[in-house]
Amino acid sequence: MTLNLPTLLRLSFKSLLNRRLTVFLSVLTIAFSVALLLTVERVRTEARTSFNQTISGTDLIVGAPSGDIQLLLYSVFQLGNASANMSWKAAQEISAMPEVAWTLPLALGDSHKGYRVMGTDAAYFDLYKYGRKQPLSFASGEPFADLYQAVIGDEVAQKLGYQVGDKLVIAHGMGKHSFKEHDDKPFTLVGVLERTGTPVDRSVLVSLQSIEAIHIGWGKPALSDIRARFAEKQGSTAQPDAEVLQPEAITALLVGVKKKTQLFKVQRRINEGGQGLKVVSEPLQAVMPAVALQQLWKLVGVAENALLVVAGFVVISGLVGLMSVILTGLNERRREIAILRAIGARPMQVMLLLVAEAFILTLLGLLLGAGIFYLLLLVAAPWVYEIWGIWLPVTGFSLTELKLLSIIAFAGLLVGLWPGIRAYRISLAEGLSVRL
Q: What are the helix (H) ranges across 257-346?
């Protein structure tokens, strides 16, 4: 007499029901480990995507020679300081290059309660892109249009409780507490940006002319003729014009080219300082943001791989625990196995039965783990975006995630092999014998 496959599966299902508490705990262990692995993989992928899309639509970043990563850090991530500035003359000559579509000057060096103040043009709010070339948008207010007007990022507004119309004072240099404040020229807040998940959220944006205006007489033993003209006007109601407040130097320059095919040509001309770029005795460096971001990620991306490895070991621990449960229950099922053999089950069928049980429990763990994973996404995605600026989309499994799930399912088959081989070796006589 032989048993067919449906009968064996039915008997296996009833056996699992008799051990439902142990089975449930095993499935739950696998489910939580799978959910952890999927969550780490999704966060890792989206964090890299968000990191690489901190700045998009900008073809080149130009500044004083300091290395690709350092130039990226202080101009985009606002970390560290520039080793030197670039002249306004050089910025104008780059802007005049026939291949260049637009430029955005950046002036750094001041702060407000620990947040960086960045001087730039009003065109910044139209030309700066992040994510998938998303433009900046305003939660309230509008761009600055005059001297002593400021726009702040979402984090600055949330942490400091600012609203449109509030006054703020810019400090010279960095630091939460500064004894060199430009308190004689307070700024009026005219706009608050929507959250972007980029360093823009931690920025205070003002015009280049405002940066020049508040620094008249700071650190200068003698004012230039142009600044002297402005100093004479300070007592009058007349506002200084753009020519009077034209900066002598800026920190960096964002550049967009007309055609992507011209990108390397423009970069080479700036880096070599010749071939039409008439900048005398002023070396410059132009880097592509995408390339510099990849280089930077290689330095900080070790943590993501470490998290993935840790999550992988958690899954392995869950599968080993499942194998331990099956092996532990094997001694209690010796008589059950012997009865199956007695009614016609072949040794190979008994082995496959235990392998099938391990595989079924693994699949149940995968399904439950996927459910927990999507529940976590629904609940935690807005919270993660609010704090870290990483958006976790509730989408189908990626190819990498499907590969991980397939590996776990295959591992579930392998987990059942050892108990199956042990069951295969149990003889009918040993199963029916009574042990004292």
A: 263-272, 289-300, 302-332, 334-342
Q: Is 160 helix (H, G, I), strand (E, B) or coil?
A: helix
pTM: 0.70
Residue with tokens 């016609």: 344
Question: In whole angstroms, what is the distance from residue 337 CA to residue 339 CA?
Answer: 5
3-class DSSP assignment, residue 202: helix
Residue type, 91: A
User: Which run of H or of E encompasses 206?
Assistant: strand 203-207
Instruction: Take residue 304 and report the two structure tokens written for it.
Output: 């993501």
- Dihedral of CA atoms 306, 308, 310, 312 in degrees, nearest 10, equals -150
Cα distance between residue 31 and residue 40, in whole Å:
14
Q: Would you say 160 and 97 are in contact if contact means Cβ atoms under 8 Å apart?
A: no
Coil, strand or helix at 96: coil
pLDDT in tens, 232-279: 545 444 455 555 678 888 999 999 999 988 999 899 888 886 555 554
The span from the CA of 102 to the CA of 104, in Å, is: 7
Q: Contact 389/198 with Cβ under 8 angstroms? A: yes
CB contact set of 173 (below 8 Å; sequence gap of 6+): 109, 110, 111, 180
Phi first, then psi: give them for residue 233, nearest 5 degrees.
-85, -10
For residues 345 and 3, is the Cβ–Cβ distance under 8 A?
A: yes
pLDDT surpasses 70 at 319: yes
